[in-house]
């Protein structure tokens, strides 16, 4: 019995230390390398890398985890116009859908296993397509730099953050019509819907603020102050906390999503890499530039993509502190997760 207990404890110890960052795999978009890395959270090591289009920015995973879709945004000189579809079972890019020149696809979400929603900055538009690339509808936002989006499955409303207009465009996906524009603040960019699907939180990067929109009234009900350049926001799965990456401050702020108060600000102490003149993030200034956020379904970990440091920082969500680091390729940004 004694030896059995010793062996069991050793097995438990190996199991714990072999999965330092959670279970499953992280999908990391490497903007300057034009590819997607699959990283095992058990080891922190890359298992697969797939070439996609120029300067991929955001990724969405279908609810059944059969497919991932990547927006290939391009750059100022060569604006992108493609979306890559990845078969997650085969670990293979199975389609590259091409659209009109210069649309600059960016934010993307699955409405269901077959339907994709994405923003097109270059044409101030919102697209609905299927996995085969068929355009189901195009709805004009008529707002400047329509960037990120969040989809509410309960109301069938999509919310598009427009950086240039400082607004959020509301689109009824079921009826395929634009509902209204809601003014939030300068540089509206990061956007997420709370667990109860009653509120939309929008980060205004130029105003250093968060606007909270009531989904029923479609009005801003509260504004919260943030640190410099809030660029992304994600809620934990239990709905208790909201994490905000503040790119120029080099921090991740943690808010209590119920009381709407700040819990903590975590400094992301990552060393920026030398700019070779090809990095898109150089315009954001110095520092690690934390952008992409992903919360593990267990709510034990959060992953922060530091686009100037080529590092994904791992946060322990119980202790609210840094617990690990994962090296990436050049300029990590958008993040996805598969079990």
TrEMBL record:
Positions of the YNCE-like beta-propeller domain: 142-268
Domain of life, per lineage: Bacteria
Keyword Signal: yes
Signal peptide as annotated in the record: none
A Pfam family that the UniProt record links to this protein: YNCE
Keyword set includes Signal: yes
Keywords: Signal
InterPro entries named in the record: Haem_d1_sf, Host-pathogen_enzymatic-act, WD40/YVTN_repeat-like_dom_sf, YNCE-like_beta-prop
Protein name: YncE family protein
Organism: Fulvivirga lutea
């Amino acid at each position: 019995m004694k030896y059995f207990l010793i062996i069991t404890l050793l097995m438990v110890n190996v199991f714990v230390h072999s999965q330092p960052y959670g279970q499953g795999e992280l999908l990391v978009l490497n903007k300057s390398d034009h590819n997607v890395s699959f990283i095992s959270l058990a080891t922190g090591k890359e298992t697969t890398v797939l070439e996609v289009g120029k300067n991929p920015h955001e990724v969405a995973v279908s609810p059944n985890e059969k497919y991932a879709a990547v927006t290939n945004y391009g750059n100022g000189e060569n604006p992108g116009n493609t979306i890559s579809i990845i078969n997650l079972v085969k670990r293979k890019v199975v389609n590259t859908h091409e659209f009109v020149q210069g649309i600059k696809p960016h934010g993307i979400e699955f409405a269901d296993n077959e339907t994709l929603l994405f923003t097109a900055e270059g044409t101030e538009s919102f697209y609905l397509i299927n996995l085969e690339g068929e355009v189901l509808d195009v709805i004009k936002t008529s707002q400047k730099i329509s960037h990120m989006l969040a989809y509410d499955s309960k109301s069938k409303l999509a919310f598009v953050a427009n950086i240039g207009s400082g607004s959020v465009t509301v689109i009824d996906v079921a009826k395929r019509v634009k509902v209204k524009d809601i003014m939030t603040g300068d540089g509206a960019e990061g956007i997420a819907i709370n667990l109860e699907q009653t509120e939309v939180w929008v980060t205004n990067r130029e105003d250093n603020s968060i606007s909270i929109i009531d989904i029923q009234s479609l009005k801003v009900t509260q504004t919260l102050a943030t640190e410099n350049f809030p660029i992304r926001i994600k809620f934990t799965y239990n709905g208790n906390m909201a994490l905000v990456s503040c790119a120029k401050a080099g921090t991740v702020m943690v808010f209590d999503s119920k009381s709407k108060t700040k819990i903590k600000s975590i400094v992301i102490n990552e060393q920026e890499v030398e700019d070779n003149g090809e990095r898109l993030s150089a315009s954001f200034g110095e520092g690690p530039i934390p952008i992409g956020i992903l919360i593990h379904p267990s709510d034990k970990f959060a992953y922060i993509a530091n686009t100037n440091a080529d590092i994904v920082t791992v946060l322990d969500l119980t202790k609210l502190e840094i617990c690990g680091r994962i090296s990436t390729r050049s300029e990590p940004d958008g993040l996805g997760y598969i079990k």
